[in-house]
Structure formats: structure tokens, C-alpha cells
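pasting for the record
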Amino acid sequence: MDTHQRAAATEPTPQSPEFSESSSAPAPFSAELKAATWSHHEEAEAHGFTQALLDGTLSRDGYAAMVAQHYFAYVALEEVGRALADDPVAGRVVFPELFRVPALQRDLAALYGPDWRDRIVPSAPTRTYVARIEQMADEPGGYIAHHYTRYIGDLSGGQFIRKIAMRSYGLSDAAGVAFYVFDELHSLPRFKDTYRSRLDALDLDEAARRRIVRETQLAYQLNVEVLADLGRDHAPGAAA
């Protein structure tokens, strides 16, 4: 799923030993964040639009509409990321090799044609989501929440979508699913380990950790609202 969708089977879940509440040592922040947002992740994965995508029943137009909404979100996410690149908190997760806007532009050209910029507009939920991301320019911890929600999802469940979209719509890594291709990372599992290590090493007090958790939960909610709007137009028969 896009970031908040089907997690890779090899990843630990909040029910696995590393999330055990009986451990005397405090959970790493990455584990705490995942556990605190697991139900939100599952809600996004179970959404009717997401299920239509994963089942291969979503139309090509529906897939293209999702890519278009991603574009507006990632323009905001990466503009704020550049502004916060030197921040001691947010800057720890700003990896230029993750940036998705150029790949999204290639995908949109493949899906809509050379005039794609004239054919897409942000939906109302996407405008709300983008506004929240832009507010994080003044909240570095909050930016981490939105960064984590999107990119970790792209590196995990997004890889399922890559395969499904290629099969369902006849797309290629070069055009149509470039968004999900992270060749510069070489090894996605190793990169995700590095990312979690960066989260765990952040110098955060308990209040700051709680704020990031709450913002991550909000990020999932905003993503679900985008999905719901897409579902009304492109998967009306699917359960919300």
C-alpha cells in the first residue's frame, strides 16, 4: 500500500517478542512508533480503495488518480524536507535518495500524457494533508511523523503495489511505477534498518516522543481520508 498499506511479512508486528511489554528495557522509539500506529496502519490497509488496488480490480484511471494525489503530497513533503535538512531532529531522516517527485513526474507522464500538469488537481482531502505537511516546517518532530508514515510504507507495502500495478496495468519500472523503485538504496531491508536506527538515536524526551506518535496517527488519518475520497470516485462498490 502505499505507505500505510500491506506490511512485508518479515517485519515484526506489535504482537512479536520485540514489542513485549514485559521487557524491562524501554522499547526503541521505532518499535514504540510502530506499535502505537499499528491499528491505523491496518485501517488504511483494509480500506476499500486499497483492497481494490491490491486485488487488481481497481481501474487504471483509479490508479492514476492515486498517483496524482501522491504527487501533491510529495511535493510538499520534499520541499519541507529540504528546508529541514540541517535540523538536528528532522534532518536525521532526510535522505535525498528517497525523494519521489521526479519519479512521480515520470509516472504521471506515462499515465496522463505530456500535458499531465493540466489534467490533475489536488482533492480537498489532499489539500488538507498538504497544508498539514507544510505546517511541519515549524515542527521538526512532526515532520518526522509524516516522513515515516509515507516513506516506510513506500519501502514496505508499496513494493506489493509495484508488482500489482505492473501486472494489472501493463506498466514498467521506467514509466508508471517508478514511484516505487528505489534503486539508489540498493537494499531496502538494510536501508529500513538504518532508518529505524536513526529514529532510535533521536534525542527526544517523553513529551516529544508522544507528540511524534500523535502526529503519526494523524498522518495515517489524513491518508485514509485521501483514500476515502479516491474510493468514492473509483471504487464505489468497495467497502469503506
